[in-house]
Input
Amino acid sequence: MEFLKLVRKRSFLSEAVYTVLNIALAVAVVIVIRYTGSIGFAIGLVVLSKWRVFAVRPRFWWANLRSNLVDFIVSISFVLHMYIVNDAAIGDPRKLLLLGILTILYIGWLLFIKPRSKRAFIAVQAGSAVLLGTSALFALSYNWPASLVVLAMWLIGYTAARHILSAYDDETHGLFLSLAWGVILAQLGWVAYHWTIAYNLPFFTALHIPQVAILATLMSFLAFKSYDSFHKHAKIRINDIILPLLFTLSVALVLLTIFNRVGTAI
Output
């Protein structure tokens, strides 16, 4: 009984330390951005927080890095969005409110989404990497070379696909499928590089949601549902994908025909 009490005590202490450290990381990032304006220092804090990736023999570094790429993409995307908000010419109260919202969302990612290992949460993690990663990329890449944007989109697509496919233990073509999905998103990124539409958030005009981020996320969701159906039934059943397909096509049609005229070209 004493041993069980000790185990429970250590477990509770570990959870408490984990929670405090993750909250401290999110708060430290927003403080650095707010009071120094240094995006490099903020990204450095995120990288430093992942020290366990390299706390093993060098031959395991690449494997650890690949398994943490989704977290890297989401975390750095939050940093970039905070930097964009802090650098925007908006009123200080609204700026502080939006920074606070982003900080809370980042804490939610660190504490409640990232640690989960169920397939549904893994899908949410991959989708978050696509949405936030693409949004941050196109918010900052207006003067980048097209090749760099395409490469970044490939990395986002590859990472998200590999992450969700890791939830299927018997998948033998994960590498090929991940590379293929990276190419599809890279092609989408090349098209979007030449004409990007972004939408203002209500009341928070400092943040824009690029159209390509919404389309990439919807396409990724549809691809996931199609693969899941194929994995279960050895074929893609229409009943499994009809609702995601109709939703994706409907949103894409509305964005490409109606909201192209009300968005902001960047």
